[in-house]
Amino acid sequence: MTMTDSTFLIAGTTHKKNGMWSGLRACLRGVPLFIVVGIFMFFTILIYSDRLKWESAEDKLQQLANTVIEQGQSIDNLQRTLTDRVNIFSRNAPTIFAITPTFTRPVQKAELTRVAQTFLHVPNFHWIVIEDSITKSELVSNFLQESGLVYKHLNIVTPPNFKLGKNDPNWKKPRGVAQRNEALKWLRQNFNSSHNGVVYFADDDNTYSLKLFKEMAKIKVVGVWPVGLVGGLMVERPICDPATMKVTGFNAAWKPERKFPLDMAGFAISLRVVLEKKDAWFSFESKNGYQETEILEQMVTRDQLEPLADCCTKVYVWHTRTEPPTLKDENRLNRKGKKSNVDIEV
Q1: SS3 label, residue 25
Q2: What are the C-alpha distances in Å from 35 to residues 16, 28, 98, 155, 334?
Q3: N or C: which end of the chain has fewer CB within 10 A?
Q4: How does DSSP assign 272-335, residue by residue?
Q5: What whole-number distance in Å separates Cα of residue 157 and Cα of residue 154?
Q6: Over the stretch 246-297, which tens digit does the pLDDT of each residue have?
Q7: Looking at the annotation, which residues are catalytic?
Q8: Distances, alpha carbon 190 to alpha carbons 130, 185, 205, in Å
Q9: How far apart are alpha carbons 111 and 177 in whole angstroms?
Q10: Exposed, middle or buried, 342 (CB in 10 Å: 0-12/13-18/19+)?
Q11: At 106, is the secondary structure helix, strand, or coil?
């Protein structure tokens, strides 16, 4: 076997090995031929064995690559399917018009922020925010512009004789009357009965589960559900008969004689009904705690109530009014003509 400049085919690739073989010839001078042949056979077998391993690994890598590609296509298909279903849901689901009265106070932006973070996740959501103010405030205007929500910003001031005094309890006078009526007026001026919608009175001092808004998509006339931490109870709710899916009573402890002893957060009304009952309004003359009852009496009858939230056994909204902060040191600064939040919106 003559070792001259030659070309060897190893693992399917042609390599020039002049320098390597020259060195090898020098090392093997004087070595018996059978030893040379043995060494050659050993390395040939070793190279062939490695080649088989590489071919096997290459096959496995190719199989893995094919699997990844197939899985990637499956994920793409799944994403397209989910997107299509979301789009279908968005087209068919009602627009939820959430009416939120608000007024200037230290916790106003904090409360609006909390509820807005929930509302951002609700499909087909339209937020109607009404300030109790002569003009729209810069704070609320900026907040809504940056919220990422579809919204309508309105304002109307509560008449002075119906405003709560500084030390008055919340229940002394009806609150949010002018603001909710302003929102109802805007809806009646801008929509007609061909629009599939639901109207919900979503105060900014509540906490809302996303599950609540999924329930609202089922409403035909007026939907009702439990509200947690209200009316002196852990939960105030309609009583539902599972056999008929009808409301048979209420477990309210506070003024249970009301025809509709519900919290404002405990019901939503079809937009169609709101538009048809165009003479239904909230009233400043309502007795304490009767706003909900009186607006519902103008729009529906008790047998039209649709119990939702698993036959009114699940709580998806809580009356979690924020406690007013203690600002005695801030008040002390104010008396000196100073404040801690100079050029800072809180």
Answers
A1: helix
A2: 24, 9, 92, 102, 102
A3: N
A4: HHHHH-TT----TTPPTT-HHHHHHHTT--GGGEEE-HHHHT---EE--PPPPPP-HHHHHHHH
A5: 10
A6: 999 999 999 999 999 999 999 999 999 999 999 999 999 999 889 999 999 9
A7: 292
A8: 16, 9, 27
A9: 20
A10: exposed
A11: coil
Average of per-residue pLDDT across 32-39: 62
Sequence-separated (6 or more) residues with CB below 8 Å from residue 99 = 128, 130, 179, 180, 183, 184, 199, 200, 201, 202
- Which residues are within 8 A (CB) of 256 and not within 5 positions of it... i.e. 6 or more apart? 250
- For residues 238 and 174, give the distance between their C-alpha atoms in angstroms, rounded to a whole number: 23
Q: Which two tokens stand for residue 41?
A: 């056979």
Q: Count the residues in the chain.
A: 346
Strands 227-230, 233-236: pairing kind: antiparallel
Q: What secondary structure does DSSP assign to 205-233, as a single string? A: TSEE-HHHHHHHTT-SSEEE--EEEETTE
Residue 177 burial by Cβ neighbours in a 10 Å radius (0-12, 13-18, 19+): buried
Which amino acid does the sequence have at 145? Q
Q: Which two tokens stand for residue 40?
A: 């050659």
Query: Tokens 């309890």 label which residue?
Result: 169
Helical residues (DSSP H) of 14-165, grouped into ranges: 18-28, 33-92, 108-119, 138-146
Pairing of strands 151-155, 238-241: unpaired
Query: What's CA 316's distance to the chain center, in Å?
Result: 14
pLDDT exceeds cutoff 80 at 161: yes
> Using alpha carbons only, what angle is made at residue 206 by residues 202 and 209, rounded to the nearest 5 degrees?
85
Distance, CA of 313 to CA of 226 (rounded, Å)? 7
Class of domain 93-324: alpha beta
